[in-house]
UniProtKB/TrEMBL annotation, chains A, B:
It comes from Nitzschia inconspicua. GO terms for biological process: monoatomic anion transport; monoatomic ion homeostasis. It is found in: Membrane. Residues 599-613 have a biased composition (Basic and acidic residues). The keyword Transmembrane applies. The lineage of its organism: Eukaryota, Sar, Stramenopiles, Ochrophyta, Bacillariophyta. It holds the Pfam family HCO3_cotransp. It is a multi-pass membrane protein. Residues 32-193, 221-560 form the Bicarbonate transporter-like transmembrane domain. Residues 579-613 are annotated as: Disordered. PANTHER family: ANION EXCHANGE PROTEIN, SOLUTE CARRIER FAMILY 4 MEMBER 11. The chain crosses the membrane at residues 59-81, 138-160, 172-191, 222-242, 263-280, 336-355, 455-474. GO terms for cellular component: plasma membrane. This is HCO3- transporter family protein. InterPro entries: HCO3_transpt-like_TM_dom, HCO3_transpt_euk.
Length: 613, 613
């Protein structure tokens, strides 16, 4: 649909807007000015109104964030336990999530961001555990010392505004990352070939969820599997059904409709939890892996706590006690150089902290999300370093901004139109505060968490994935491969670019997506995931401009205002061209062209009207 | 939203169109003229083109009608077997369905109508069986003699054009009946409290589908139930998904999209049959109740065939043979008056034939269905009498136009717009012909029918019900009870009638619906179902005009052209009124009113544009 075939008389597309498609680094705010600026802009200015905007949505979103946070927290906790020999376990993960969530809600710069465990940090911690084992120094000591270095690096980076490099990421990188997140949602919910999670895994008789019932003659793995699948997909369907009421005519007024919409997720979870517990009380389905009671996970053989029960003292009936909460900095097994050596792994830890936080912050602060309370990259990086130092001292896992719950949080607080475009977001500290208070409180009633069937939560994740898909332009372009070109939906790029050029760009982006996807999913290299995402930035800055013209990159990858500017310039140039031709060639011979042109514009107006509805 | 509050200056709504809302009987075509007219109009004129319009849709619809016909045929067959002591059974039902379907496709007047077993006729046959038992005359003899009278009555009714009374039914009656049909679809598919059919019934351990596996230790009724529910709802979802492609941009061109749409049902049935047979080969789910081989169901103890094996000769290892196909008219047990007496029950049988056929024909020929090949009520009533006489001689069940498959057939052949409104229907004899040829052929490979899981067919029925709901105005008005009045969708009645009047009409209609619904579902009185539907006609003719004004009935119950005429008259009267006021009162004082009016019209235009998209 390239409309510039009129040839050399029209100005070339590339000359319409000088410098189109280029990306610029913002000016640095060195010597801590960035931190202070962030604090003033994001915390000082908005703190009070973010603390008092309590309404119905606050309740709905609090419960929603709670159930979406508690599930990965417990899952990560269990994996941490296996990977670190119970030095860090589910209780530690819950405690860390809760205290950081509460504190961050009160003093953080971007309180829409939910902080939690992520895969790369887990992989790094596992590596650090193996280093400590090889060194023959207690893991928690190494971990604590590394944390000290970590906070130092984080503070320096914030002090010199190194976070400004994150802002070089454009839609190209953001959408690769967003689609990776969607793939995590959907695969985890339906069938993840890499990690044995997802509803269809229950059909496999060897799946670990069936293991506890191996010797139970009443247990039928197929019954559990089929029930799980029904609960999961049923929950997804019910959420979409409830949310559909928002733009319907049902109920007495818009507030009731909005309430049904806001409570759609939590309502559906409750409905299907009831269905499971009362409809099928005798059919076990997988539940959250909840620890038995609130105490450090590591159990000691004796008072010194240098050996672990029951591994190291199998003949001992019960543990002597649990490890102390505080790490012993001096317990270096005579190796005084270890605290210095920890500076090296701390670099890796810092890079993860920087990248993992950075990508998520950048995605959350995307312009289309209409956030108005500013970005606090430097201030929050400093906070993040501080939080993780405390965690290092206590033997709690390092936490960073966790993309999945962040997006859920953002979308739940957003007011959208019928097409899912965000109109405004209720920026608040209360939902993060209350939801993480709930995480803390749930440590007191741990067994209650077991009531929620895990398949129902998978249903929630599936909903999350599916509902964000339509908003990702990369996905829309990917679908163009399967659509009839003549009826492609009208967008700036389909209107003005050649079809093959669009496909070429999508293929290039898909290659990078595949690269990141593989790294994210293959366990042994998953630690490199944030690096791979960041690799997309130089690809956009240095490779793409060689393959595409600036105006093409602008249409595909620019900000909305830039695209609008270019389209305006293009249409203006066509109008001028027509005018010149009309003048120079006489009126009669040219009526057709003018008519054609105005027809084209009419068509476009119709198209865009259709798209609006 | 009554807009006539301007009071006595505007002409009253009731005077706008004289005689609005009244219903008239068409002129009779006595002395067989109706039959001849029907034959000329419907058969002679269109036969050839209805026999050669073979295309892709023919294949899709043939398969669709086959699977929707075969299921009730076998189900009714099983119930006939129980009710008539195997005098009539599944084989007889299949044979009757097949030969009548093929013959009707070739010579019938309205070849969109599918002919099959219905509940009321079954109930009547059961009653006749009990009469014969009390008389101590063989049932098949009584049945054959009744059939002779039946065809006589049917011929007389056709000869004197008695079918013209069916045309008195308006949207009021049609939509009550249509909603009853939808309730049958949905309840049968999901959970029918009256007949133990539907997906959720499988959850009950005592359901008859679990009985064959009572002593099978490997059988788990919950597994079967959950799998059945998944297959059923999965199939419904997949059909809607496939059909959605028709109005999408996917695939290379519109013909592929239309193909996906046309084969949506049969494709989904195949997909879920494969899922069941290959994914879960070891989990039994309910299948069609298929007879073992092709022969009369009734088995005899000896050559005279006066006693039934195994009931009457339990010690005999095998039956002597089966009953002969032809009824013995002389086997009256010495009661020579029985052939005369059969005139009495034949009246009841005829009324059923007349009513059951009539309602269905009327529903199928509704104007909104855009059928162009005419109505052949008289000719088809005569044919129906003849067919059932033959069936009476052979001991096959009486068949009448069967609403559910008729609607499926009609809708599958229809071309619709995005909102499901029918634009045109491919009127053909081929689909009925081929599908009933398939029914006949399937008697040769009876066991192959057992491959289709019944829950998948339930999924098809659920789809059928849900997809016809939006088109029923009665249902749309019922939903108004739950909608915010300020945002009611714009229709002629919501635009011009008072809200409470609409509700009053809907309540009245709902009462009649409830009455018909109860009669239809309570077994012992279900024989009266067609009478109850016909009761709606006098209710509309004599009761409704006392409760509502003519113009209100016209808006709610009139044909589309009548409604348009009234709305035009109304708008014209408003315009004239405004003009008079402007002239008589000077321009200044009246600008507001004119503006208000034009604003109102603008709003309406916007509304209707929204509704179109």
């Amino acid at each position: 649909m390239c409309k510039s075939t009129d040839g050399d008389k029209l100005p070339a597309n590339s000359t319409l807007v000088p410098g189109a498609g280029s990306v610029h680094l913002s000016a640095p705010m060195l010597w801590g000015k960035g931190i202070i600026h962030d604090f003033k802009e994001c915390v000082w200015q908005h703190w009070w109104k973010e603390m008092i905007n309590f309404n119905q949505k606050t309740v709905a979103v609090t419960l929603l964030v709670f159930i979406t946070v508690i599930a990965p927290t417990l899952t990560f906790g269990a994996v941490y336990g296996k990977s670190t020999n119970n030095n860090i376990g589910a209780i530690e993960t819950m405690l860390a999530t809760s205290w950081i969530g509460i504190t961050y809600a009160l003093i953080g710069g971007m309180p829409l961001c939910v902080i939690g465990s992520t895969g790369p940090v887990l992989a790094f911690t596992t590596a650090l555990f193996n280093i400590a084992k090889n060194l023959d120094v207690p893991f928690l000591t190494v971990y604590a010392w590394t944390s000290v270095w970590l906070v130092g690096y984080a503070f320096l980076a914030a002090f010199f505004d190194l976070t400004r490099f994150v802002r070089l990421a454009t839609r190209f990188t953001d959408e690769i990352f967003a689609l990776i997140i969607v793939s995590i949602f959907v695969l985890d919910a339906v069938w993840d070939p890499f990690s044995e999670t997802g509803l269809f895994w229950y059909l496999s008789p060897g799946h670990q969820s069936h293991a506890p019932y191996e010797n139970d003659p009443d247990y039928n793995h197929l019954t559990s599997a089929l029930l799980s699948i029904l609960l999961g997909f049923g929950c997804t369907w019910l959420i979409f059904f409830f949310r559909g009421f928002k733009f319907s005519e049902f109920f007495c007024n818009q507030s009731i409709r909005t309430m049904v919409h806001d409570f759609a997720v939590i309502g559906s979870v409750i409905v299907f939890t009831i269905v499971k517990q009362f409809g099928f009380p005798d059919v076990p389905t997988e539940t959250l892996n909840v620890p038995a009671q609130f105490e450090p996970t590591y159990k000691c053989c004796d008072a010194s706590c240098r050996t672990q029960w029951p591994m190291d003292c199998a003949d001992q009936g019960a543990p002597f006690g649990t490890r102390p909460w505080f790490a012993d900095f001096g317990d270096l097994n005579g190796k005084g150089w270890v605290p210095i050596m920890c500076a090296a792994p701390a670099i890796g830890a810092f890079l993860l902290l920087y990248l993992d936080n950075g990508i998520t912050w950048h995605l959350i602060n995307h312009k289309s999300h209409q956030l108005e309370h500013g970005e606090a990259y430097n201030y929050d990086l400093m906070l993040s370093g501080f939080f993780n130092m405390v965690n290092g001292f206590l033997g709690l896992p390092w936490l960073v901004a966790s993309t999945v719950p962040c997006i859920i949080h953002l979308q739940a607080l957003a007011e959208t139109d019928r097409n899912g475009n965000i109109l405004s977001v209720q920026e608040t500290r209360l939902t993060l505060l209350f939801s993480h208070l709930l995480v803390g409180l749930s440590m007191l009633v741990l067994s209650a968490l077991e009531l929620i069937p895990l398949p129902v939560l998978y249903g929630v994740f599936l909903f999350m994935g599916l509902s964000s898909l339509p908003k990702i332009q990369f996905w829309q372009r990917f679908l163009l491969f399967f659509k009839q070109p003549a009826v492609w939906p009208s967008t700036p790029y389909t209107d003005w670019m050649k079809k093959l050029r669009i496909h070429k760009y999508t293929v290039f982006q898909t290659l990078f997506f595949a690269l990141v996807f593989v790294v994210q999913n293959v366990k042994v290299i998953s630690i490199a995931f944030p690096f791979m995402v960041f690799l997309c930035i130089p690809a956009r800055l240095f490779v793409l401009p060689k393959l595409f013209e600036g105006w093409e990159l602008e249409l595909l990858d620019g900000e909305d205002e830039q695209i609008e500017e270019w389209v305006d310039a293009k249409e203006e140039s066509i109008r001028n061209f027509e005018k010149r031709r009309t003048v120079s060639m006489g009126e009669e011979s040219d009526n057709d062209t003018v008519n054609q042109n105005s027809e084209k514009q009419d068509n476009e107006m119709e198209k865009s009207e259709e798209a609006d509805v």
